[in-house]
Structure formats: structure tokens, C-alpha cells
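Invent a record, attention on C-alpha cells:
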Amino acid sequence: MDDHKTITKNSIINSKKANRFDRFGKKLYKNLMTYLFVGGLALITLLVSITLIVQDNFSKDINDDFNTANIDVNIPSCLHNFDVHYQCLECGFIAWEQVEEYSIFEFSKNDGEVRIERLKDNNAKFVSIPNYVTSIADNALGDISRLEYNVKDNVCYLGNDENLYLLAIGVIDATASYFNIDLGCKMIYNNAFSNCDSLSSIAIPGSVTQIGKAAFLDCDNLTSVEIPNAVTIMGSAVFFSCNNLTSITISDSVVRIEPMSFEDCSNLRSVVIPNSVKSIGDFAFYGCSNLDSVEIYGFVTSIGESSFEGCCRLTNISIPNSVTDIGKSAFEDCISLIGVIIP
């Protein structure tokens, strides 16, 4: 065999493998070069060392699969705030366990969904919310008042270098009557718009998948809300005591109506529970004294304690066959109720 056809451990990897590795390296290097340390430090170059350990039997055929090599990626601890490590995961170079080790967050992961459970460093002033995060647990970020945030159109956000407006966390002027949420926003955090007394309407973009606990609590002048179809999670007390809310359109993707979601929305007139909803939480519509029409569709299995208590104008309700549990006082003080269909 000619010398130039001889393949050894020290031979160069064929062009296809080299191109794949080179693409990963260039993408990673480009991201690393963009990061700026907080606190006025100058932009510095952060190096990721990639060690290619070639197995003993990786020597014979130039067409051997690239996966027969073991890759060990050492990511500097200074990258804990960023999601470069996840790009390595997407390329197959590191395991999810390494993502968790190097991240500033503690995650849970289930069926492709990634949830931030908590911030490991409660004193952190700067956090970067990775794009791959699909939901955030209640109070996962602790005291958000200490965090550095981005502002656009009077709304405060946390995000990352690719999307500055990933998570809406609050407002600058709570007396405004309207807020324009950025189209790149994926999540609305706990209490983000609570106590905005002058807020009369809100356009929630179709990009939003989660609305946090008490996000619109005590927005006294809010009259109507449409929940986009992308929303799968609405936190408890999300519209608690929105006294002038008259109509609500719930997304066909919401799985649960959480406890106290619409409690004391005294002017809410009608509500449709879509097919996607599996449970109606305790006190969900408690004290909705003008609610006269409720339609429950599909696959609801449980109706929580006091969920419709005090809905004194409700006259009829049909409970679907799927319901197996109705909580204590679910329809207490519904003094106008004349017809109930129970399977």
C-alpha cells in the first residue's frame, strides 16, 4: 500500500469528520468571543479546551464512524452563567449531567421540557436565561429586585445574548394603561404585572408559553384577556381580584386551571374550559359573583374545593362524564343555580 494511503492513530481525520468538528469549534468560538463579564471587566477571550482521545482500535479505516472517538470537553467555570455548554450538548459532545453541573441553575428535565427549579447562587446579580428553558418554577429566581435586567417599552426582562426579552419580570411604571410585550418573550414571571391598577388591556404574544403565579393580580381595570394557544402553564392566582375582567379566552393548550386563578373577578360573566384542561383548582372561580355561564368541555377529571363558591348568578352547569372528583363546597352559595347535570 502507498504511504499516503496508510492510516495510523496520528493520521489526520478525513475531511468530513474534520468539517464537522470545525463547524462545532467555530460556532463555540464565535459565542465565546461575544461574552462580556459584568462589573466593567474588559471583553476577554475564553478558551474551551477540547481533547480528542482516540480509541486503540481507531486506526484502520478512514471511513470509521466519528462516534468511535471519545470527546472530553472541559468548560471553564467562568461560563456558569451562560448556555454555551448546552450548545455542546446539542452537538452531542457532552452529557446533560455536565450541563447541570456547569449551570448557575438547578434544572428538572422531562420529555424534552427543561424547567428551572431554582437559582443556585441567591446573591447573583446577573443571570442569563437559556433559550432551551421551557418553564420556570414559582420563586425560582428568589429576590428579582437584585438582578440586572433589560427594559423595552416599560417592561423589564431577563434573557440572554440572543434574546434579551425571554422572560418578562416586571414594569417600570405601574400606572401605565397599556404594555407592549416583546414578540420574543416566552414566559411571564410571577407578579410581573400585578397591581397595575390602570392597565385596561394587554396583548400577550403568541410566543408566550408560561404565565406565572399572580402575574396580573389586582389589575383592577383589566377588562379582557386572550390567552395565546402556545400557553400551557398558568400559575395560581394569575388573575386574582381583577374586578373589571368581563371575559377571558383560555388557551386550548392549558392543562390545569390553578387554584385561585380567577378568584374575586367579580365582573367575569362567562368562561369556557377547553378540552385540554384536566383539572380545575381550589377556589379557581371563587367569588365571581356575576358569572352566569360556565362551559366545561372534554377531559376535566376533578373540580376543586370551593372552585365556584359564591357564583351567585350561575343558573346552569353541565359536568362532563370525565369528572371523577368534585371538591367540598364546589358550588356553595350558588343561590341562582337551578340545574346541574352530573354524570
Remarks:
- Helices lie at 15-32, 84-90, 96-102.
- The longest strand covers residues 113-119.
- The CA atoms of residues 217 and 240 lie 5 Å apart.
